[in-house]
Write a structure and sequence with these properties.
single chain; 524 residues; mainly beta; Immunoglobulin-like; 6 domains; 6-stranded mixed sheet; 5-stranded mixed sheet; 42 strands; 57% strand
Amino acid sequence: MISLLKLFTLLVLTSSFFCAQRDNRFDPMSPLFQQYNPQLNVALITDSTRTISITPNAETLSVYVPLKVTLNTTSKGGETGTEELPVFVTHFLNNEQVGLPLSNSSQEILLTDTGTHLFRIETSNRPGDTVITKNIVIFARPTPNPRLTSCTSSASRFPIRHEISFLLSIKIYDRFKIAEKIAYEFSSYRTVYHQVSASSSDTIFDSLFYSINKNSEDTESVTIKVTDLFGRIDSSKITLVFSKDIPFVKGLPPEINVISADPDTAMTNENVEFFVKASDSDGKIVDYEWFFSDTVTGRGTNFVRSFKNPGTYTARVKVTDDSGSTDIDSVRVTIVSSDNTSPVITSFTATPDSGTIPFRVDFAVSVIDKDNFTFTYYWFFPDSFAKTYEPKISYTFKGCPCIYMPVMVIVKDLQKNADTAFTYLKFTQKPKPELCISPDTIFTGQYFSVTYLPGSNRSIDTTTTHFSWIFLDRTFHSNLPFWSPPPLFRPGNYSITLIVHGSKNDTISKKFTVFEQMPPHPPK
């Protein structure tokens, strides 16, 4: 009896346990189990410039390929409604599956094929549960290839037995920036290729300046082809006619009006802009060619370049008109090093270094500078100034000398760094006394000086000698053998007289002329 009671109790407890399990809301077998339906979210990102049309819910699109699309997907559900659920994306092209379903939450897909692309996005709480599905349909069309919208030649009929130059100009419409190269194919089996540079514009302009010579009557066809990234080609043809009935007329040459370099002195690796402006009275300019002394070449009215090494460079430009006539001009630009050093004068010579007034002296200066600059030389004489671009100068002294007369030279490089040197000349006097006026040429309003030279055979005792200067009917007394009269503001002929009072009395006169205008001041 006790054993039957124990067995009954065990059956009741076991039955109660299983019923409790089925009544648990977290048990899928329990009638209390519940879960949220998946919430599927899909975001499509694409290039709007290649999108032709799109429906408001973004589930149907018409696009140009190639095109990159990005699919971002999320799904939440489960018992709490916040559980992340897997999402599968299956790609179909024209009803045929492309590859295996993908399960990444963000997927980049490159569409290159035309036709109907279907993306089926699916999610569910558990395998076997109801599947939530969204479809995105993309109708893909081929991207329009670049189109030649204009092809022209500066001339189409030419004489024979003459080299003729002409300009081919084209215009290409390339909305999707896929043009890759341009070919100019001549029927004489020569082809010239131009690569297409990146541009933000939908329109591409290109040109070819070409020269040709035919010895007999003939036609030459030029086929212009533009090829895109997918190998598609658009083409156009121009026919050139060569005939003996067409006279050869070479028009008036073009004229270069302006040529410049900005800046004309620049640092290494600094951009310099070269500019040319030209005109043609009987036609039009068809080409501008730049040639530089370091073998670099360029084209156009504006050309920008930099220079790696210091030095002076010459830029030449050749301008050609539609008749083949040319004009050539040049401009110089100086390039300096960013770590420029000052020039150093190593020698300054005067030949001869002594003599009797008047006499000619040849001056020469030697300079070293690791920057290899062109220098400017400023020469300062007692009564004159000179500026040269050569390290030598000749000068004839006519003025009033001291026994030792200094001459100074300043050497400046292109960055205004400078060095200075002096040399001294020894002058011997003439045997007879005289008056010396400096400078040799006097202008109105200019200061000048008068010096008494007693002669090589006579000496002056300055402690017992005094001087009387007679000028403009007035007498000026001094203990010095030189005197500076006031400036004269009337041009004309003048005379000055000196009376020397001392152990040996002497009277000397000197005539001179004052001119009307002042000379220009030397540059600083």
